[in-house]
Amino acid sequence: MQAIANDTALCDPNQLVPSVDVTIPLFERVYKSVFASFLKLNADIFLKDNDVAPIPISWTYQVLERRISMSPLAFYISAVILGINTVTVVLVYARAAAVYLLRRPTTIVSILAYVAASRVCSSDWDDSKYEEETGEKPTFSFGRYVGTDGRLHVGIELDSYVTQINKTLEGCG
After folding, report:
1. Which spans are transmembrane here (predicted)?
2. Which domain range does residue 19 map to?
3. Res 73: pLDDT
């Protein structure tokens, strides 16, 4: 009865005895549950002498179930957005873009390889000296450039030294 009422006052010895109006409905609920359990566990008392199996009892169990629903307008908007995304992905991947990177920039070493031959990595590089000579802050671009070693490289260098990348990069190192 305490669990059904969700109240500890029924079993508290420091409280007054609960009234009959409170205990009778609780006792009825407990009695119904216990009696149903008793009948289920002792189904053999309903058997006749010649019966060997309990009588099958059919029952149904109903539960209120919440389902998430969507209005038709919201569904159509979501479907259109998904369709636009699908078309965009197909168009982007269908047009195979030229590969510009010679190596994947996933490690520090491969990133350093893009700037190793640039003027910024040389020992005499100075930002303030560059600004005094050109009158502007240094900006960088990605492309082909002739490095400090005199060879052709693909990587990151000052804007004034970088040229556009052709689709074929063979021979660049």
Report:
1. 73-94
2. 2-46
3. 93
Residue pointed to by tokens 């908007």: 77
150: left (phi over 0), alpha (psi -120 to 50) or beta: left
d(CA 16, CA 18): 6
User: Quick one: 125 exposed, middle or buried, by C-beta within 10 A (0-12, 13-18, 19+)?
Assistant: middle
Position 120 in a domain:
yes
Query: Which residues have C-beta within 8 Å of that of residue 125, sequence separation ≥ 6?
Result: 119
Q: Is the pLDDT of residue 83 over 70?
A: yes
Q: Could you identify the residue written with the tokens 């159509």? A: 76
Token readout for 9 is 């006052």
**Is residue 121 assigned to a domain?**
yes
80 within domain boundaries: no
Burial of 32 (0-12, 13-18, 19+ CB in 10 A): exposed
Both tokens of residue 140?
Answer: 């960088």
Q: What integer best gives the mean pLDDT of the chain?
A: 81
Query: Per residue in 89-100, pLDDT tens?
Result: 998 888 866 666
Measured CA to CA, the distance from residue 29 to residue 1 in angstroms comes to: 8
